[in-house]
């Protein structure tokens, strides 16, 4: 029983059926973004150490990058809304074979803030998503309805600070929009997709997609993922592949490591990231009077109309038990 409970707690951040969960819900490892928010009044940090190597076959350049990345997420106002800040700060040493020299560049390669809002959740009504108590197979195999995803929208801005050598042509502020979906294919598999339109307002707007599949392992504290990302703009285009593993230490702390590479040689890329996620939970459950509960809240659906009907039925039963007099004034037995 204890093992099953741990297994359930591990799957909650991956297969969550509501906004708030008792276990950390991290976007790490990888670059995909979950459709779900962290939950109201939950503050979450996701950080890592990044190493990246690039080699450009045509320009005969080699670049080694080392730095850190940090994401701060907070559940704002209500369960479906999340505000976030994302930053990646790198130091790059770039060498040119033809010039026999090395240049050092230091700045943000990612620096943005935004809001994410869940607009559709297929698991919002627990009454329509009850487990089948008579069939283990029905609860653990793929079903077509599992393809119906949760959907969220993201809107934010990129901030290009100072003389950024990584984006010298970009203005100080540009904009970013994203559609994020998340499908629970089975109790062990989750599919996340992101469609992104980035750096809006620059001379080099960027379209990209991310498709990520996460699988829970037999040991409930471990999971693996594989992710594909495609990027297209006049400045840079590529297809990237990532994979990695995550370990859940407890309901607030998760650690991970992942690796990635590109398919092209202009430039070729290899990178590795090691990091962790930690949350500060200030969430408080909202108590709703039983007569005001919606369907599926805190048990079976209870409605005011149904309560009124029950009272009327009781009154009618009491009236029906009284002896009625006949037309001639004699009480009928």
Task: Describe the fold and architecture.
The protein has 333 residues and is mostly beta strands. It has a single domain, classed as Porin. It is built from 3 helices and 12 strands; from the N terminus they run H-E-E-E-E-H-E-E-E-E-E-E-E-E-H.
Largest sheet: 12 strands, antiparallel, barrel
Tally of domains: 1
Query: Could you tell me the radius of gyration in angstroms?
Result: 27 Å
Mean of all residue-level pLDDT scores: 83
Q: CATH superfamily assignment?
A: monomeric porin ompg
State the order of secondary-structure elements, H for helix, E for strand.
HEEEEHEEEEEEEEH
Write out the strand line-up for the largest beta sheet, numbering strands in chain order. Answer: 1-2-3-4-5-6-7-8-9-10-11-12
SSE class? mainly beta
Q: Enumerate the spans where pLDDT stays under 50 for 5 or more consecutive residues.
A: 1-18, 299-303, 329-333
Distance between the termini: 60 Å
Quote the CATH topology: Porin
Per CATH, the architecture is Beta Barrel
Q: Which range does the strand content fall in?
A: over 45%
Number of helices: 3
3D shape: globular
CATH class: Mainly Beta
Helicity range: 10-25%
**How many strands in all?**
12
